[in-house]
Design goal:
Two copies of one chain form a homodimer. Chain A is an alpha/beta fold and 285 residues long. Chain A contains eleven helices and nine strands. The first copy, chain A, has two domains: 170 residues, NAD(P)-binding Rossmann-like Domain (Rossmann fold), CATH 3.40.50; 103 residues, 6-phosphogluconate dehydrogenase C-terminal fold (Orthogonal Bundle), CATH 1.10.3660.
């Protein structure tokens, strides 16, 4: 399938990401429909003109008319939704998602899916510290990465359509990784960083300390304002990769701690120079 | 001593901070002189008109004319400088500094100082990821904290003059802490965060991972571009407080790790909610 504007797109889950997809795609002229939990989200999206139609809950007719379905749900709700409602889908429909973990979702969904529809997974690496369709904006895709995670079950056509969707949405980089590579990478750059921020924000209860925080503390704890229901599910859905990354970090942190305890100035300086060099290279990208 | 513009101010160490002090104070009309390691820094400052006079090395006459001397040196150089050159100081001169650690510096300097001059320590909590007088600007003081750390040896007059200096420089908040309180606080909000950034930046050598970094990884590693000679000295000068803070963080991080390993969703969510609440309160300040 090549995406053309006569296609019918259904967004399931109209929150921050689902709403931002709707806004971008509606602007291109696609017919965009939406199903979500709360009618108030649908009302807001209709009023803003970012969807053509929508309703709370499930609408078999709306599902059966969709050529492309985008799932923007919590992982466990996504899988339940497929189990219960795939019977309504049009033969040949293409499914994609925005889920932040892949191995625990992609294989399960592909396994239970009807053979005449196809699921190609993707992770738009964009987000904000706020939630809901009311905060959605496709501007957050600018400069961000969009990762397609195909498996052996995917057709090349579906992969290409999914990549094209990433470009249409306005992502700066569209790339492909296996679900396993994706989960290891996200365990490091996103989940580990959130674990660090949460631990830092809660490890010292001295209230007066906060009065003196500078930019570095602020930077390291921005993401400590975390959605506990979403992130606890994401962490547990990627447990093995996340634990590997946490253990790598902890071991390096303790290596630095021991060098400080032992007054090993040469060792500390070597690690700091390595850190500064890596970070400088990174700024050039 | 009340600061008035007839006073003669000497900056020792004309780098990023010393240069920024010079710029702000010269603008107020003070006579500002400077001593530093390299003549090129003096030439630059004279050309920019942020000092009235200066030279590389030591100038007994310039030292003997100063009413207020600001030390912007590495901790061990600061102490050596005092030992060798305090004999040139004017009786009644007031000394202050910008050093990022206090206990290991303040008591030592006050102990070896002549009885007819006074050292009142301060820490301007401002900085940039760049160095040298060429990058100095007093704009970096706006919105930042300035901490005065008096001891039993200080007079109330000196403390008030030092506070007044912080206000003149344009700091948003001027506060007082004991050297011990200061070092514990800085061990947490500044040194621990730099240790975390360095460990995070060096714990995973997979080059391809950097291609997918998002804002959170960028935020947590901004300060990983670190000056190894300065920070290794600051860490070692505040070893006990820093190790306490590192151990508190590591223990909380491992608590979260074990909750993930054991699938303790309730525990994780409670820690995340606590984190989000603390960070939200913090944003209001």
């Amino acid at each position: 399938m090549i995406i053309d504007v006569r296609k019918n797109i259904l967004i399931v889950g109209l929150g921050l990401l689902g709403g931002s997809y709707a806004e971008a795609l509606h602007r291109y002229g696609f017919h965009v429909s939406a199903l979500t939990r709360r009618q108030s989200s649908i009302d807001y999206a209709l009023e803003k003109g970012i969807i053509d139609e929508g309703t709370e809950g499930v609408d078999p007719d709306m599902i059966s008319r969709a050529d492309l379905i985008v799932f923007a749900l919590y992982p466990h709700i996504f899988i339940e939704w497929i189990e219960e409602n795939q019977k309504y889908m049009k033969p040949g429909a293409l499914l994609t998602d925005v889920t932040g973990v892949k191995c625990s979702v992609v294989y399960r969904v592909q396994e239970l899916l009807r053979p005449d529809v196809e699921f190609i997974a993707a992770h738009p690496m964009a987000g904000r510290e706020v939630y809901g369709v009311e905060n959605s904006t496709s501007r957050m895709f600018a400069g961000a990465n969009y990762i397609v995670t195909p498996t052996e079950k995917n057709t090349r056509d579906a992969v290409e359509t999914c990549r094209e969707l990433g470009l249409l949405l306005g992502f700066a980089n569209v790339a492909e990784l296996s679900p396993e590579e994706h989960d290891e990478m996200i365990g490091f750059v996103s989940q580990l960083t959130h674990c660090i921020a949460v631990a830092l924000m809660t490890c010292n209860e001295e209230e007066h300390i906060e009065r003196f925080t500078g930019d570095s503390f602020r930077d390291l704890t921005r993401i400590a304002r975390i959605n506990d229901s979403l992130w606890s599910e994401l962490f547990l859905s990627n447990r093995d990769a996340l634990l590997r990354q946490m253990d790598m970090f902890e071991s390096q942190f303790m290596k630095l701690r021991d060098m400080i305890a032992n007054g090993d100035e040469d060792g500390m300086r070597a690690m700091m120079r390595h850190s500064a060099e890596r970070r400088a290279r990174f700024d050039k990208k």
